[in-house]
Amino acid sequence: QVQLVESGGGLVQPGGSLRLSCAASGSIFNIGSMGWYRQAPGKQRDLVAVATSGGMTNYADSVKGRFTISRDNAKNTVYLQMNSLKPEDTAVYYCNAQIRTDYSNSPYWGQGTQVTVSS
């Protein structure tokens, strides 16, 4: 069984920084893209950043220059370094990964971690 476990959310003041982590575990053959999405109250879940297994990255325009996604493929872990945080970054952040097992090649989601940016 595959699991994605996130950590690193919390309360931070505007202008501050947080680092999210997401580790995949279980019977994993390999992992394709890994990324972060976020969902604010009353809004849809939107892509924040994604990184391919080959190291290519893509970001939402709203976070370019402030957030950095990175991966440690040996640890099946993806990170999101968030700097210069703004109140509008407040949301539940979800990790997503395209994971191949012996039986399937499917997207998996983490449980979500709350990020609140407020003074």
Shape: elongated
Cα(first) to Cα(last) distance is 40 Å
Nearest-angstrom radius of gyration? 14 Å
- Given the helix and strand composition, which structural class is it? mainly beta
Entry summary:
This protein has no helices and 11 strands.
Provide structural commentary.
This protein is an all-beta fold. A hairpin with a 4-residue loop joins strand 9 and strand 10. Strands 2, 4, 5, 6, 9, 10 and 11 form a seven-stranded mixed sheet that branches. A four-stranded antiparallel sheet has the order 1-3-8-7, with no helix packed on it. The model has no long low-confidence stretch (mean pLDDT 97). 0% of the residues lie in helices and 56% in strands.
Which keywords apply here?
single chain; 119 residues; mainly beta; seven-stranded mixed sheet; four-stranded antiparallel sheet; 11 strands; elongated
List the helices and strands and how they pair.
Layout: E1 3-7, E2 10-12, E3 18-25, E4 30-39, E5 46-51, E6 57-59, E7 67-72, E8 77-82, E9 91-100, E10 105-109, E11 113-117
Parallel strand pairs: 2-11
Antiparallel strand pairs: 1-3, 3-8, 4-5, 4-9, 5-6, 7-8, 9-10, 9-11
